[in-house]
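hey can u check if this looks right to u? its 171 residues, i copy pasted from the old doc so theres a chance i mangled smth
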Amino acid sequence: VGPGWARAPGSGRPAPPQGVWEKDDVRKDDSFATFAEVFELAAAQRADLVLLGGDLFHDNKPSRRTVVRAMEILSAACLGDRPVAFRVLSDQRANFAAGRVNFESPHHNVGLPVFTIHGNHDDPAGADGLSAVDILSTASLVNYFGRAAIAGEGAGKVRVEDTEKGWYITL
């Protein structure tokens, strides 16, 4: 298993980052099928959220095909009218690239929030300090934390809580 790679649901195999092997005629769709399966399982289990541990993309500058496929999968799985019952207690402006979580925006219907951080494959690099994860965040498909320089009180500690179900996560 490579750094940041999760296990593919139900298989015990590593789940590859988006776009890995995209030039291989046989395996080019494997990462997308696995990514979609993660969301199928989340829906079947009625998950409150999906947490991606980095390396969503294999490269800092993935192909347009890879970015579009990731956006299609995220849109189909995450947008909808299902109510989000938990809340983010930490300072959203200090911790999220977009300045707020997508499911609290009046302009988007997010039924399954996705939280992510970049990994060493898709880290923000170069003169602009951007990665493909910034595109997903700007499109309100993911809640990208760990993007901004973490400084100040309350920054770098994201707390998500559901008081009805009695769970919380501190990232």
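The beta strands are 50-52, 87-88, 114-116, 143-144, 159-162, 167-170.
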